[in-house]
Specification:
about 150 residues; mainly alpha; Leucine-rich Repeat Variant; 8 helices; about 70% helix; about 0% strand; globular; ARM-type_fold; HEAT repeat-containing protein
Length: about 150
């Protein structure tokens, strides 16, 4: 694997295929160890990027690194993260919701805020085909929460 610092830098590469390869390596590493966690603040910064691909990468890397979050950074950034449930791009909304499944497993204390945000999400702005998918995503996360708690 390439240097973690370089992989994080490559998340912003203009070649999205190249950036995606770096992203996938960071996701896999995040599942195995805390070696990516020191770059958590970089992932937070990605949430506000104009490029939805970069926002997607930030959302998922925050979620994947929530298991290593000894500094409670997810707690601090949760409201910013939850805004992306209704991101302007429906694919980004779906990535956010997918990430919430991981966060719920790692940060039980955040479940009430996550549930509230999912229940209150206004998704009518999306085309009906995407809206149905987002509704299913939300229902899946809520079902997982209800099973677990």
């Amino acid at each position: 694997m390439r240097d973690i610092k370089q992989l994080v830098k490559d998340l912003h590469h203009t070649d999205n295929s190249f950036a995606y390869t770096s992203f996938k390596q960071l996701v896999e590493e995040s599942k195995e160890s805390n070696s990516v966690y020191p770059f958590f603040d970089d992932f937070i910064d990605m949430l506000e990027d104009d490029n939805s691909y970069i926002r997607n990468r930030g959302l998922i890397l925050i979620a994947e690194n929530s298991r290593w979050d000894i500094d409670n950074k997810v707690d601090e950034v949760l409201s910013q993260y939850l805004k992306h449930i209704t991101d302007v791009k429906p694919i980004t909304a779906r990535q956010c919701i997918r990430g919430l499944e991981i966060i719920v497993d790692e940060k039980e204390d955040l479940v009430p805020d996550i549930k509230k945000a999912l229940y209150n999400a206004i998704i009518e702005k999306y085309p009906s085909s995407m809206r149905k998918l987002i509704e299913k995503d939300i229902a899946r996360v809520l079902k997982g929460i209800h099973k677990k708690f």
